[in-house]
Amino acid sequence: MTTSDALEPAYILHTRKYRDTSLIVEFLTRNQGRVSAVARGARGPKSRQRTSWQPFNPLMVSFLGGGELRTVKSAEFLNTAFRLTGERLILGLYLNELLIKLAGKFEAMPLIFNEYQSLLDALASDNEISMAQLRNFELRLLEELGYGVTFDRDALSGQPVDPEKYYIFRVQLGFVMTDAHHPDAVPGSLLLQIERGQLGSAAADQLLKRLVRTTLDFLLHGRPLKSRELYRKLQVADTSVTGDRQL
Asked: Is residue 110 located within the same domain as residue 67?
């Protein structure tokens, strides 16, 4: 597959040193999804952009080549760089790590690109961090990966969820009816609440957190997320980070 050399919007997800003066950069692009490319001379002493090659930085970029590892043809960094610290930095790194480990290369995901952009805007603002917005990003990503969850229908019978009944979640399948006494039983009323986009309650957050964690761990095949461990350590060290938040 040959990539167009037209400039397109992108964000830097990760960089690592390559040879003496170059970098291998993981990008999230609007039109091509995740792209790995060599930025030649990016670390060189004469590079005017050497400090710009940082995670979260937005840019316009074009590529050369047709293999798994492309070459950056042109990079124009935008004025709006994201400077995240503390909890907000780790949440941003979590987004990047998910995309690097789960998103396929050269698979356009414009909705995910837009969600990512919105989340970075939120993390960079002075507003309170919304875990509901993070959960929504995770659900959208699962949907793009073919593991979307339906909250208003029984995954086995196809029947509408009954608010008076109980359901359990099964990876690769979805929610199916169960006995009310099952330890993982979820009331249908809560599923319908989530289907309506009402994600702010503690019960909804707990359910989505468990659902997303279970499915992501399945897709990661046991590979740990470094950002999760960083977040746990931050919660121990910084009492201002609430302990009920989890990645």
From this structure: no
